[in-house]
Amino acid sequence: MARFLEPDRLVPVTGVPARLAEQETKGATTPLEKAKDIYEYVFRTMKYDKSGEGWGHGDTLWACDSKHGNCTDFHSVFISMARAEKIPARFQIGFPIPADKHSAEIPGYHCWAEFYLDSVGWAPVDISEAWKHQEKHDYFFGAHDVNRVQFTEGRDLRLAPAQEGPPLNYFVYPYVEIGGKEYPNVAIAFSFEDAGSTPAKVSALR
Description:
The protein has 5 helices and 11 strands, in the order ααβαβαββββαβββββ.
């Protein structure tokens, strides 16, 4: 459990996020109350906006300063602040599945976070989805919908077999090395198709 309290390269647990966490959880006496206060802070101060540069890296300090980004940025702030308050938290990433379609292209990934409570175990939060669907603000604290497929967990990842390059910030798209160096020119496309009683599938085409 200790590893879920430690910083990642772009997810610090000291400095700005620690000060924000202390400020925003004043008066909270339990980890659940603190997690809810942090959830509310990120929901209130962040805007789902993929304009400009810098978003999508899950850089807590960038997100605290810019106050916008995508799901990686929202949940990096939550994880930094939660860990600063000694609440174990972890990052999960996968793909969204459209609820109203039987088959479709999937334009990109989606991520969310989980925090740990001794009384219940891991509890999910999806603040970026709550921001986009504000009628589900309460629902996405402690729950998430089933229209998603989890792919990997964590940040600063070493693959197996290990890549020669640095740890991956997160892993959801194919990673290719040639001659010990990352090869970025990999075409990708993702789609899903309902298969009746067979679970929906996510395919990656290269």
